[in-house]
Amino acid sequence: MRIASLLPLLAVTTLLACGQETEPTPAPSGVSLTIQGLSLDQIDRVVVTAQPSGVSATLTRTPPNQFFQGTLTLPEGQYVLTAEAFTADPSQSAVASGSANVTVTAGATSAVMIYMLDPAPDPGQQTLEPIIKSLTASNANPLTGEAITLTSDVVHPTGAAITYAWTSTCTGGTFSDASAATTTWTGSAAGTCALTLTASVADKSVTSSVSVTVQPSPGTVNTAATYVPRPYITKLTMTHFSGGTAYNGVVTRGAPGSQTPGNFPPMPALKKMQFQIETNEGWVNKLLVTCNGTSTYATSSTQTCGTTTCFANFFFNSALPGSVCLLTATSSREYPGGALTDTFSAGVRVQ
Fold it and tell me: Domain 6-117 class?
């Protein structure tokens, strides 16, 4: 149970009685402790122990000021005071603890501040799983007894250390190092095997497999590659024709890699506007309209078109006069490993 992250403890050491060497019977010295600042009702008691003497005292709550008080009787000397806070549950260990050094001196009063810390760890952000970018085998059809190289490319979004574990569905095969990112595997009998990599960070893990066929004769490696062209938005067009009002705005983008700026001419207020995205190699196109920095007039739609030049059309109602809007077009093309995306924006004032 997490009670608190930081509890202040004030310990005042006071000599209860002291005598000089000439006195026949010196009185014992002691430590009187007062704890304040504990406002959590879950704290039932605080136990303070002095080392190396091992003397301890249980401090109890003193209503109504919520102080925890008690007394330790100690001779003069150097001590380490350890304070532990407990709940009313006798089976539960300390929920907070802290320590500090104190000197007990005859005829003097000293003070020490002990910070009692909650031992429960900060939960922090949820652990992210690693990402396996690629997993390859140097030969998909090795001979019996032939070692093949298994290579993986695994990353983690935060750069955390990754652990690796290789397994095989063929019991006769062996890995040179089953806990390395790159290893070798040798099959001892003919057959098809799934070689699986499990990449882990803390309690999160991902797996990926390659299939190999061990055979008594030489094999070949079958490879395939597919080019995925990147989508590119070339032009944004916005028009309106109704009720005697005509509007035609065009923003043309420069060549790939250029950063040609451009905004639409002022557009009429409260009109149904037609917007067109012209893109190359874009499969999915979206339009987002944001006015005055808010999503009051935001609209989003999705259209799918071919693999060459694509014209995606959208409709939205323009904002109130005086508004300033940002029109953002997004064109993307997905493939099994992810998606390639292009974004192009233009501003416009509403009049």
Answer: mainly beta
